Amino acid sequence: MATWVIASLTWRELVRRKLVVALLALTAIVIGVSGWGFSRVPHLHLGGHPLTQGEVHTAAAQLLLLVMFMFSFVLALTCAFLAAPAIAGELESGVAQGLLARPLRRRELVLGRWLGLTLTISVYTVVSTTLEFTLVRWTTGYWPPQPIGAEAALLVEGLILLTFTLALSTRISAITAGVIAVIAFGAMWLGGVAGAFGQVFHNAAITNVGVVTHFLLPTDGLWHAAVYAMEPSSFAAAAIRGLNSSFESTSGPTFWYLAWVAGWLVVALAVALVSFESREA
Amino acid sequence: MAEAATEPAAGQEASTRPFPRPAADSPAIHVSQLTKSYGPTVAVAGLSMSVPRGEVFGFLGPNGAGKTTVVKLLLGLARPTAGEGMLLGSPLGSLEARRQVGYLPELFRYQGWLKAREVLALHCRLAQLERSSWPEAISGALRTVGLTERADDRVASFSKGMQQRLGLGVALLGSPRLVLLDEPTSALDPVGRHDVREIVRGLRDQGVAVFLNSHLLAEVEQVCDRVAVVDHGRVIAAGRLDELLARPQVRVRCTGLGAVAQQQLSVFGVITDAEGWLTVSGIDPGRVPDLVGAVVAAGGRVYEVDPGQQTLEERFLQLIEAD
User: When comparing pLDDT for A158 and B23, which is higher?
Assistant: First the structure.
């Protein structure tokens, strides 16, 4: 019960402090600007001829992947910035001491914060991506093959980073937790890029860097899962021919990879709960 | 007093384990050999004490003496290195203990984005009070700490003093049986300090134990039944105020006394001479006229006689210097 009190408090805090409004407003601006861009695609010419429907879809898919890549980056930063002070900030300010003097279990505080942040991130992800997909379809006619799969992959990518940062926040200062999380996210992305290069040049060692990073902190792996769910089949075919990059994916995630991600999420949350149990306030 | 159970680690809730039902007559606080070390630094060294229900207990000490650490150990916010204790008959840090305790932290910080009324409502929920009792509990707390007119203002707009008043209101919610106040007047003006003294006296009248952690000695002196003085993590003196200050003294402003004459006066008590004032500590109050007569007989000229009781501050400084 106390978990829901903290979750509700967290949600109210983000709403009251205008974070939810800010996210939605910025999303509206980005969607408005990108919508104008997408609306121009059907009117483009190539070699003096208007684009065919297939070419419009290809261009729209490429643009969509670029926009969603930016969204994925913003989502990751948002998760890190929200989760880093969620526990550490409360301890540093002294707010946590007042709460923990009540009959509130420490795991209830951590779980409540996680639930409140998860709710916020879920609303942000689902609303933003649904609006973007709808806009792309309305302006260009392109509709991702697996829109729900794409949304789910992006959401879980955010939750992975959010949970990772929250676990750090139970032990180290807010600023350090945030910086570590952002650097880790960037490092995983670079690892994924390195892995793609390894595939192009058939270098097993470099390819393995990408594989390892996809398991170590599965944010980049989930980004590629989202890419696969959003790209037309022609992109996947190109990637198989050796042109794999952050904006193309050869295949969707396997069942075992998804199981790994689920396990990773559960273990990270468990670590956060156990870590804070033994922390002194 | 129920036997003290093994101490739960910080954050481990003992309520999930069986422990003796708290006896109604168990002390508000009972700790035995409570020790807390941070690496080589000993913050609390084998603290043993008992505070009965309904008593106002002053916990005094200079900065860094370990006072706040003791409060954190009592609430389970920190884990003891050794020792054990009970609050109101329940193990330190247990949910059962925390259900009956009100706490004003030294760092009184509350959610600045909430209104004062909402902060109190949040703590009503966390304290698991009956929902029907919230309105009365909240308005009562606001009234007691003088924040009724600011109830619907955001905490972020409050001065430090008002935030401390709010913290006091939070600590009073839900009719606690023990209230832990950590430096409760550090941000308050003289009116606020007077109000806090009245609140503490009111709690005592209701049979609520108050653990007052402070280094503002004048206030402690005015409201506490008993005090303990801590330094370097250990109690260096404890007892009722009248016992602790049971060193009657008289100060005589006089001139014309030589060293020999002063030595002769030592039959009345311990003599110290500073800035024209002769202080005789430990004198039997009935012998003050004899003392004055002896000074005059020794050739001294007496201008003023101050039969003052030693203040807590004087005793405190004496204890700290001797430690």
Answer: A158
Run of H or E including A25: helix A19-40
Identify the H or E element spanning B131: none
pLDDT tens string, chain A, 281 residues long: the values are 899 999 999 999 999 999 989 998 999 999 999 999 999 999 988 888 888 988 899 999 999 999 999 999 999 999 999 999 999 999 999 999 999 999 999 999 999 999 999 999 999 999 999 999 999 999 999 999 999 999 999 999 999 999 999 999 999 999 999 999 999 999 999 999 999 888 888 899 999 998 999 999 999 999 999 999 998 877 766 665 555 566 667 778 899 999 999 999 999 999 999 999 988 88
Q: Using the beta-carbon criterion (under 8 Å), do A279 and B10 form an inter-chain contact?
A: yes
CB contact under 8 A, B126 and A97: no
Average pLDDT, chain B: 87
Task: Select from B89, B36, B60 the least CA-distant residue to B212.
Answer: B60
> Quick one: which H or E segment has residue B167?
helix B160-172
Percent of chain B with pLDDT over 70: 91
- How many Å apart are CA A240 and CA A249, to the nearest integer? 8
Are residues B11 and A98, on separate chains, in Cβ contact within 8 Å? no
> Would you call B11 an interface residue with chain A, using a CB distance cutoff of 8 Å?
yes
Could you report the predicted ipTM of this complex, rounded to two decimals?
0.87
The structure tokens 């991506």 sit at A129
Q: Which of A89, A240, A111, A54 is nearest to A172 (CA)?
A: A89
DSSP A176: H
Q: How many helices (H) and strands (E) does chain A have?
A: 11, 2
Query: B301: burial class by Cβ within 10 Å (0-12, 13-18, 19+)?
Result: exposed
Give me the mean pLDDT over the B20-25 stretch. Answer: 60
Among A238, A90, A97, residue whose Cα is nearest residue A169: A90
Residues of chain A in contact with residue B170, where contact means CB-CB under 8 angstroms, are 98
Q: In terms of pTM, does the model score above 0.90? A: no
State the amino acid at position B278 in one-letter form. L
Amino acid at the residue B241: L
Closest partner CB to A103 (pick from B12, B79, B128)? B128
From A111, A162, A118, select the one nearest A6 (Cα to Cα). A111
Residue B87 CA to residue B159 CA, distance in Å, equals 33
Mean pLDDT, range B167-177, rounded to an integer: 95
Task: Assess contact for A171 and A87: CB atoms under 8 A.
Answer: no
Contacts of A101 in chain B (CB under 8 A): 75, 77, 98, 101, 103, 105
Residue B168 and residue B178: Cα distance in Å, rounded? 13
CA A201/CA A207 separation, integer angstroms: 9
Q: Please, what's the b/e burial string for B36-48 (b: 16 or more CB within 10 A of its CB; e: otherwise)?
A: beeeeebbbbebe
Interchain proximity B103–A17, CB inside 8 Å: no
Distances (CA, A) of A278 to A105, A148, B10, B12, B103: 12, 39, 6, 8, 21
- The CA–CA distances, whole Å, from B18 to A43, A132, B22, B96, B298 equal 75, 55, 12, 11, 73
Work out the burial of residue A202: count CB atoms within 10 Å of its CB; fewer than 13 is exposed, 13-18 middle, 19 or more buried. exposed
Say whether pLDDT at B234 is over 70.
yes
β-partners of residue B228 are: B59, B238
